[in-house]
Amino acid sequence: MINKIFLLAALAVSVFSAQLPINSKYEISIENGEFTVFEFPFDIKKTFKSGFLLQKSAKEIQDMKDDENQIIIDPRTNKQTTHKNEIIQIKQGKRSMTFLPKARGSFKLVIWGFKYPIMFNIKVVDTKDKKSEMEIEYYYKFLDYSTNTKKATKFETDPHEKVIVKLIRATYNKKLPSGYKSSRSASEFADNFFNYTLNFSYTGKKYTSEEWLIENTTDQKIVLYEEQFTKDNVFGVAFENNIVEAGKTTRMYIVRKSSKGDY
Fold first, then answer.
1. Which end of the chain is more exposed for a tag (fewer CB within 10 A), N or C?
2. Domain limits for position 29
3. Within 37-134, where are the H helices?
4. Do 42 and 136 fall within a single domain?
5. Which of 109, 143, 177 is the last residue of a domain?
6. Domain assignment of residue 199, yes or no
7. What are the pLDDT tens digits along the chain (263 aa)?
8. Distance between alpha carbon 45 and the CA centroid of its chain, in Å?
9. Pairing outcome for strands 53-54 and 118-125
């Protein structure tokens, strides 16, 4: 077991994107009026987009048609130009697609460049100014995990203690180690003192690193010890802060042995 590691809040935390394994088909919702980016691990060779199916009332659709061609006057030259009001703007990069929708609805997108075509059913939704439990991501990173096995093996060739420290540091900074898979499937449980919530995990060939949120549900200050979480196949435990005031939270990092079905 490694010594307890107290992480400094001054360390930079990187932006966490939604990371998905490459499949042949996806159902994804994006936010109306906001930019959404898809990033791929291959060069995009060709794309096809279906027509946009509006989800608006008859009056909203008529208003959009009436405003379809906007006249813009350049004040410097007093010349008029006609600007087409696009329902959705799509910009294609070498390995990325950027979307800016301006109406609710849905469309289909097919992308070629991988070893098989990738098909998307994309729904444009509104989650602002209303109660919604839908979680919307704005940056999707698609990963080809079939090529990552060798990278994970290389990452894990360092001495055991060094791998544990590297994994805890990477998990704290939300930087996916090379060759690892990311998962954010929620897991929660409670005891007489704390609520425990699994935020996310990184999984490689031999090791899995997890970030947990721990909430003190008592009216007393409690000191955490790594021995409390020591069990079979747990290699290392670290706390953002091992002293948790009443009603407060801290983050815990656990490195354990990967199960056979994890990778």
1. N
2. 23-143
3. 58-66
4. yes
5. 143
6. yes
7. 443 333 332 232 333 457 788 888 999 999 999 999 999 999 999 999 998 988 765 555 555 555 555 444 455 565 555 545 578 999 999 999 999 998 899 999 999 999 999 999 999 998 765 555 566 888 888 888 666 555 666 677 778 888 888 999 999 999 999 889 998 877 889 998 999 999 999 999 889 999 999 999 999 999 888 888 878 889 989 999 889 999 999 999 999 998 865 65
8. 25
9. unpaired
